[in-house]
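ok so for the tutorial part 2 we go from a plain amino acid sequence to predicted structure tokens. step 1 is just haveing the sequence, like this:
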Amino acid sequence: MNNIDIYPTIYDIDLAVCTTKCSNNDIKKNFITISKEELTDKDLDSDCRGYTFRLLSRKDNKITILVRIFRSEGKTKKEKDIDLLNTIVHEATHVLLDTHSKIGDNIYLDYQEPAAYYMGWIVSNIYKTYFKTNKA
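step 2 — the prediction. this is what the tokens look like for a chain of 136 residues:
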């Protein structure tokens, strides 16, 4: 998919991560809402730093969790890096919780390792895709 990287998970859900060149049309061309409705620009426009949506792939009707990071803010490179990390982890938390909600699983406080490894995988893939079209 142009400007969107797809990462299959072990949970029969795909993670889709937009590059910074991703447009609303790229998303609308490849996905519909969970309720099988067309996405609109209003659905996809945002003044926040990023967002996460649970969608359906047009290709195979598979549940896909889409992450889109727009920007990081700050006066210095360090402030921008910290803000980007904050945004990536914030959106990755939504992916983690949406995944567990979809599969009907709980995250247990006394057995956190699977969730921690999955969170690391999510963050790595968001970061990797973000820097395909942005310089570090």
